[in-house]
């Protein structure tokens, strides 16, 4: 008979789940307390060495609102908490996916990022530039066009979540989602969904509107979001050659020569607005 050593993946998962269930009981007991989200974050931490977390309120058409964060290194807090929530979210694949109706559940960055995202300037600036290389995401639908998101970030230590840890996170998704929904009932004040409606869509529609055609702006948006020529062609239902033609024309009109310059121009435009 084969014996299982104390450090095998099976036992590591079992021990993590034991700690998770104990922390989960504490989180449930504090769901109406001011520190409810801190207890939920503590429970999540029992499932793996999560480096940092953010819990945000996502209202359709509006900028996300930070509700809780832990573990973000001080040297990156300005970039993450100020630049991201001021404008950076407009190109974030998770935020865009939620805006476009992404269902509640658990997702890894690779599940929803466009095909060229990991070579994009956005990924280099807002992920690698802030010490993050990967992101996982719990989404809970709380009604009234609102969702709660719990983001888990890795990268500063150079380690990634193992496949086993990701599977554990997926396995507990229903319980995390239930706790987020219960927190919303007790800990969130009613929020108007009217103010700022369609601000995300408006930001994209107005960028370059004075010089670019509608199709050129669409191509620019796809490039900014991290889509390749092939992916852009498929999404817009045009040929790759047509995408390249529109890209060449919009670069000429904006007096730029690369995707990096397009990204810089878009960010500058957001800051001026």
Automatic annotation (TrEMBL):
GO term, biological process aspect, one: regulation of DNA-templated transcription
Organism ancestry: Bacteria, Pseudomonadati, Pseudomonadota, Gammaproteobacteria, Pseudomonadales
GO MF annotations in UniProt: DNA binding
HTH luxR-type domain: residues covered: 205-270
Cited SMART domains: HTH_LUXR
Listed InterPro entries: Sig_transdc_resp-reg_C-effctor, Tscrpt_reg_LuxR_C, WH-like_DNA-bd_sf
Name of the featured protein: Helix-turn-helix transcriptional regulator
Keywords: DNA-binding, Transcription, Transcription regulation
């Amino acid at each position: 008979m084969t014996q299982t050593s104390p450090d095998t993946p099976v036992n590591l998962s079992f021990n993590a789940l034991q700690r998770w269930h104990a922390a989960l009981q504490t989180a449930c007991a504090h769901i109406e307390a001011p520190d409810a989200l801190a207890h939920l974050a503590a429970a999540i931490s029992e499932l793996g060495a999560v480096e940092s977390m953010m819990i945000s309120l996502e209202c359709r058409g509006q900028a996300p609102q930070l509700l809780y964060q832990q573990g973000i290194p001080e040297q990156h807090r300005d970039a993450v908490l100020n630049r991201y929530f001021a404008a950076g979210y407009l190109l974030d694949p998770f935020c865009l996916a939620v805006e476009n109706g992404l269902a509640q559940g658990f997702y890894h960055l690779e599940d929803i990022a466009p095909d060229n995202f990991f070579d994009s300037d956005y990924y280099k600036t807002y992920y690698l530039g802030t010490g993050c290389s990967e992101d996982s995401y719990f989404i809970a639908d709380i009604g009234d066009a609102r969702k709660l998101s719990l983001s888990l970030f890795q990268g500063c230590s150079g380690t990634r979540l193992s496949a086993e840890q990701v599977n554990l996170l997926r396995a507990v998704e229903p319980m995390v989602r239930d706790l987020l929904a219960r927190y919303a009932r007790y800990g969130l004040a009613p929020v108007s969904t009217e103010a700022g409606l369609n601000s995300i869509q408006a930001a994209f529609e107005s960028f370059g509107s004075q010089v670019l055609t509608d199709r050129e702006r669409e191509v620019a948006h796809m490039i900014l979001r991290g889509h390749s020529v092939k992916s852009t062609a498929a999404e817009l239902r045009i040929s790759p050659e047509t995408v390249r033609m529109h890209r060449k024309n919009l670069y000429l009109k904006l007096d730029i020569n690369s995707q990096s310059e397009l990204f810089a121009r878009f960010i500058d435009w957001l800051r001026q607005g």
